[in-house]
Amino acid sequence: MSLTIRVVLFVAITISVCLILVRHLLISSIEHHFVQQDGEELAVIVHSIEEALVQHNGQVADEQQNLSLAVAGHHGVYYQVAIGGSGPFFSNSALDFVDVAKNAPVSTQFTQSDIQQWQLGDNMFRGVVTLIKTSNAEYRVISAIDMSFHSHFLTELRHSLWYILLGSCLLTLLAAWLAVYQGLSPLRGLSDKMRHIQTNKLDVRLDKHAVPSELEDMVYSFNHMLDRLEEGFLRLSYFSADIAHELRTPLTNIITQTQVSLSKARSNDEYRDLLFSNLEEQERLNKMISDMLLLAKSQNGLIKPQKQSLSLKEEINALFEFFEALAEESQIGLELTGNVTYVSADQTLLRHALTNLLSNAIRHTVAGQTVTVRLSEQNGDMISISVQNPGETIPQEHLTHLFDRFYRVDPSRQRHSDGAGLGLAIAKAIIEAQGGAINVESANGQTEFSILLHKAA
Description:
Shape: rod-shaped
Function: Member of a two-component regulatory system.
Strand content: 15-25%
Largest sheet: 6 strands, mixed
Subcellular location: Cell inner membrane
Number of strands: 13
CATH architecture of the largest domain: 2-Layer Sandwich
CATH class of the largest domain: Alpha Beta
CATH superfamily of the largest domain: PAS domain
Pfam families: CusS (PF21085), HAMP (PF00672), HATPase_c (PF02518), HisKA (PF00512)
Number of domains: 3
EC number: 2.7.13.3
Distance between the termini: 55 Å
Protein name: Sensor protein
CATH topology of the largest domain: Beta-Lactamase
């Protein structure tokens, strides 16, 4: 159901209930007013009849004459007077109320609660039966007022109120529909602007000052979403360009070397050297594709670490043995400091991440210096693994991008010897998949990568 229909339907129900309630209250109030008005008029009639009977006490002829003049100037007023239990000896009209009033309560003092409603023929009457006592006789007086005028008025009023209620509902619904339609115009404007946003126009932003205050949060959230999308598309675009370049370089080397070798006859040793060279490029391609698959799995939550309790001292010493030859060749020392601690992690994934960090540290350490791995406890239940190497200080603006794919602080470096630029991105993906965190700091000629992992139980 559309928002307009919902609002209009809600307004319709609310207005209908309110108008029906107002109609009921108005009818009830008018009916109550008529009851009071008729009661007051009946009280006047009873009082006038009582005065006429007391004035000519016991003189029937004079009483009849006086009763005929007792009530004057009242329209639709009827009364009958009887002595004791006999029939009426006076009536101001041909209407007989004896039968309809025979079960009515008889009161000596007129009150509003004594008023009854009687139907005689097609007409309704309000009446009261009173007992008037004089020194010589006891009179039973039936007084009644015709309700036809009141009933006709109330019937017409009910019909009129139904028409007024219907007209008011329709007018209110029309006003509500126009208000909702006008109120939603800013949303339609936003929708038109959003419709023109495409992948090549992600720099478009909605103006939050051009919308009502209620929509400012939505515009802010939408613009923030566009910021993230634009950043994601830019990174994807750069990633596509970088990966194309990274894949093209080894393929170009393989093709060029093969073409050169086939340009003329070669010796077996030369062909063997070509195969070894091609194998090296193919292994590089294979590693790059494996790394990208690992990153793709991490992005989609497909990495499922098999955590176990690992001795960090044993794991890092094993990695030191693996990098010993490379470190000696580069005249770089490897050092482990800190308490012997156990960490809860996946052994294969942790080694992969630490291998990338150590390889990166050795590659950027000046000959004669030492790469240091420090172990410490953090906040009681966390383990910190810091890989620190001396070297050029990395500018602050580059630190937040070091874990991006193919990102390089110095784009002029040779990619072939410097790796594909996926190592730090893979390390971050592995650590975060195990519920940890990784951070980097660089100052005063020292660069430090810090890993936080959960301590083994």
